[in-house]
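Our collaborator T.R. sent over the components below with a one-line note: 'Predict the complex.' Nothing else. No constraints on interfaces, no templates requested, no preferences about which chain binds where. So this is a plain run: every listed entity goes in together, and whatever single assembly comes back becomes the starting point for the next discussion.
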Amino acid sequence: MMRPSQRAPGQLRNIEIIRRYTRHAEGSVLVKFGDTHVLCTASIDEKVPGFLKGKNQGWLTAEYGMLPRSTGTRMDREAARGKQTGRTQEIQRLIGRSLRAVVNLDLLGERTIQLDCDVIQADGGTRTASITGAFVALHDAVDVLLQKQLIATSPIRDFVAAISVGVYKGTPVLDLDYLEDSDCDTDMNVVMTGSGGFVEIQGTAEGEPFARTEMNAMLDLADSGIRQLIAYQKAALGLA
Amino acid sequence: MMRPSQRAPGQLRNIEIIRRYTRHAEGSVLVKFGDTHVLCTASIDEKVPGFLKGKNQGWLTAEYGMLPRSTGTRMDREAARGKQTGRTQEIQRLIGRSLRAVVNLDLLGERTIQLDCDVIQADGGTRTASITGAFVALHDAVDVLLQKQLIATSPIRDFVAAISVGVYKGTPVLDLDYLEDSDCDTDMNVVMTGSGGFVEIQGTAEGEPFARTEMNAMLDLADSGIRQLIAYQKAALGLA
Amino acid sequence: MMRPSQRAPGQLRNIEIIRRYTRHAEGSVLVKFGDTHVLCTASIDEKVPGFLKGKNQGWLTAEYGMLPRSTGTRMDREAARGKQTGRTQEIQRLIGRSLRAVVNLDLLGERTIQLDCDVIQADGGTRTASITGAFVALHDAVDVLLQKQLIATSPIRDFVAAISVGVYKGTPVLDLDYLEDSDCDTDMNVVMTGSGGFVEIQGTAEGEPFARTEMNAMLDLADSGIRQLIAYQKAALGLA
Amino acid sequence: MMRPSQRAPGQLRNIEIIRRYTRHAEGSVLVKFGDTHVLCTASIDEKVPGFLKGKNQGWLTAEYGMLPRSTGTRMDREAARGKQTGRTQEIQRLIGRSLRAVVNLDLLGERTIQLDCDVIQADGGTRTASITGAFVALHDAVDVLLQKQLIATSPIRDFVAAISVGVYKGTPVLDLDYLEDSDCDTDMNVVMTGSGGFVEIQGTAEGEPFARTEMNAMLDLADSGIRQLIAYQKAALGLA
Amino acid sequence: MMRPSQRAPGQLRNIEIIRRYTRHAEGSVLVKFGDTHVLCTASIDEKVPGFLKGKNQGWLTAEYGMLPRSTGTRMDREAARGKQTGRTQEIQRLIGRSLRAVVNLDLLGERTIQLDCDVIQADGGTRTASITGAFVALHDAVDVLLQKQLIATSPIRDFVAAISVGVYKGTPVLDLDYLEDSDCDTDMNVVMTGSGGFVEIQGTAEGEPFARTEMNAMLDLADSGIRQLIAYQKAALGLA
Amino acid sequence: MMRPSQRAPGQLRNIEIIRRYTRHAEGSVLVKFGDTHVLCTASIDEKVPGFLKGKNQGWLTAEYGMLPRSTGTRMDREAARGKQTGRTQEIQRLIGRSLRAVVNLDLLGERTIQLDCDVIQADGGTRTASITGAFVALHDAVDVLLQKQLIATSPIRDFVAAISVGVYKGTPVLDLDYLEDSDCDTDMNVVMTGSGGFVEIQGTAEGEPFARTEMNAMLDLADSGIRQLIAYQKAALGLA
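Returned assembly:
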């Protein structure tokens, strides 16, 4: 089996994490998983949603979008259509849950951190790149809060990153690009923390159902991929 | 550890599958997982969506809704709010993918089977009950097509059912009700076929991340639960 | 003249009123007018809309929906289309007005009773069944308020029920089912109180305009039908 | 009993029907019921809606709107809010049904007549003025079709007009203005043809339920009012 | 060059400004630029939008709409389509900015003046007629505030009016009607104050780009046209 | 007078035009006017809108959006709010008109070129940067059509670019950044062709109305700025 990308089954694409990519946001990160480029910004808003008012606790939420021509064929602009697709909502809910899993909202104070993940160029794996990049943007925004002494302790409890795994022509592979993703039997997105716990697992059999053994092989690959991604995050943050 | 429902960790709730619950639909099933009651109807439409026209292949899609007072606190009616929530869209996409996984759309002819899963009363696990019941409604609708000789061969390739598993106060448990779900660390929905393959796995750590061993224990429970659910489906269809 | 339903001109369909049909709502009634089945729930919300705040008075409002396959041909789901049809809005406004006509909102306190009428199966007359069933659900919800001593006096001033009448092939008939309704010249919905006053009359000539004599005959039938329906309501509530 | 308008119980307001009020529409009528002024235009569109295509039959439909400051307090602009209220939809459905009742759609050919009723100034009775004025606009549009020899026979079978009646401080009265309408017990809109048949009756008890005797008195008033309105229509059309 | 309207290049259409056209609004003006008729109403609302609360300053805003059959071919009703077109929003933003340019919002107190410009009949130049008429409606509404002694000093600092200019078959012309507008190379809308300052200039080359000399000629025409319009405003207000 | 940006009154910001910024679009340009960065993509769609079908002519249209945190304070995501603001629609209409002014749609064939201008980082002048960058993206997309021999002759008739001018503290200045724009009296956007003709002029007095002499000074600045921008476009395209 040869992957279209010529990569070894367990090999990530080239990963780049560029901080301070734009100048207004408290955290602004361009993350690249090969040809997938996502701009992740973290914005601090000194308010919480209604259901949290007066509870002395913060909130973290995420939104996701794709530029209309980030893809091979132009997609309709969601703002012009007047609604977000189910896929978009699914992804932004996933990003939000994944990051909240490593944040102690009680330590954040009554404020919201809003993460925006906007896909500039897509080549598969936009949701995993989004989570991985958004964590770094979040980290930068938290540093702003610490530096301004708005909070005394970082609410971030652990690192978190995400990667896709799949079964391509019978072989479990890591970090599928668009070509591989379009032609694979199973596609699974795995979100894990720095200490190796699972935060989210979402696996879908696109063709044939998958077996327990395949699942185990995919999780092994994901575990290895996540470790590498967290090393990239640490390097980008100067924490390595 | 005692579950709020007093059930053993691997014990399903009382399952009921009532066919021909309403009279207009080609398939109409009321499925009960304990106090969770979902009406699943299958409707045949002699058209396909635009992207499939002229391809000599069928389509299967699903929609999901909750009656406003199916829950403890009344929810806003989505039709009045003017849009479906992200959660609703996520669930109906899951139901559609799960059923398409066991249907050969080429054998369906240029027609659509539309599955509607409407929650009459909710007590946790509405999406797994929906998938499990919708399969039976689909089976009945396919029988109508066969009886009318609109198709010669059933496009259904296997059974499919779904169940939730979770980690409740440290113990992996099967088929969480609302009380258990609200208080558990991990919630995972598993969709499997009659032949034991995975179609979908969606696991979320609500509190602490979960470990590989917990995941394995949950998958074992799911496997056992799905086998029982498929037995209920067969019994309901008189195929046992 | 023989009605398709074989009923005598002034004969109701089989009427059933089942209380406590689902377990969460303060009032939950499944009402059946023959093959028309509507689930009516009453929910208490300890708030009033903005225009009533601080006026020491309650509110009662209604929403109506049909499950997509409650009908012979599947209808689009209003939540998916993103808006309610004019027909839906017309019916839910009618239900709300009809019930407010027998409720003293000053005695309700600053709270809202929300009635939801969801059609599980349709065979004509869904709006009249909704009003008739919703009254019983409302009665149960008021009993909850009395039992909890949130109010001292019932705000319900009278019974209210609704029935359709029409002119079918020249003969005035009571309680039209779908087949009769589709083929009649005139369709009139009448809402009356227990003391025999009119709350609403809505008559439409579907084919030929109708004469004053036909109108009088229809109102006589309606009067008789409403008396029977109120007897069913009383029996269901154990007040007969 | 003295009406706020000083009119006798059975007295209409001053009625004016001005044809050719604007220059583009095939029919354009400004109708005045006292201080209620509605611009009714009829537009011919050489298409029919999808459900009528190829059936060799025409269609007639109506839309209704109020200018934001046609009323004492400015109302939100429906175009800016992004949806029409239930009241608006109810009224435009009523206008359409009322006019279709006197039109033979088979004689119209495969084209649509669209009636737009826009309230310039409101003082009660906008829906009845709309129906009464729209009929005249429709008549003018049909004349255009006849003159252009697009149709050979007029599809208009009869005149149609509408009026409100009510019970004001215990006395049945005709053609309520806003002040009377706001303070009456019962409000009923009646649509009748030139030959005296009922097309629509919509009566609502705003306060106390109304009795059969009151209803009969109101219908007598309506009958007399409609006869006068149709005389005004005929005079305006030069058919008196 | 002969204009389709037979007017000289610098000649306005017949201008009429009719005050108190409808009776509810604090200012109500029907303005006619030839066959373009716009009803402009000014409504006083004793509130300001959220972003101005507590700032002791007023607000002025405008909305614009066209009746569906104000034009040669019926346009879709924006309220029925569920959104305003980009053109509508562009025009109402322009009207609001133009009038705010001559109003001292600090002198208005914490209240909003809402201008509604509704086109009854269109023949080109609806936005310039709207601005010109809305100013007079605004003036009347301010007089109401002064007469009620709600404000002591008029917040109106200057007159404002608007006119279109264009290049028609090579010749700069003033106040284009629909026929001229459809066939001209350049269309420019100019908003000026009584003291001759520019408030807005919006010029668009519909065909060939336009040269600086043409622009200068158009601005000369606009200047002359605005002076005449302001004379009409003054005459209508009895201030001449 | 010293501009906040320290620039001379007639000095542009640093201009950069980077082609082939993303890899999927037929034209993809990142344009920078100082700290304003806009990604402009041109997509070819082998269809035209309904109103042009069968007319043997092409179409060109534009959409515009800002990433939520392209600005100092995060803006709501339009896709999440469910509609585009009036400002967004105004800008995208302007971009489309400006580019169509230099394109011969008859030479394009029955296809659409869709321009997307997405603001990555905003510091004033996003619409002028968008037009200037979109022209280069359009040029690249047309080259693709020529290279594929889908068209024989370029439909591009001239260059087009846009710049803002304003009156800042009494002095006419070129190419305002956000700080300058927020504090200026007049803001004018000018779109001109390579041959020096005006395509669009949109000037707004934000504070005091502006005089003819100021307008002339601003147009002189704009003329000089546009010449420089077109030189940058030519250089980027290798046509200098």
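Summary for T.R.: Chain C has one domain: 15-237.
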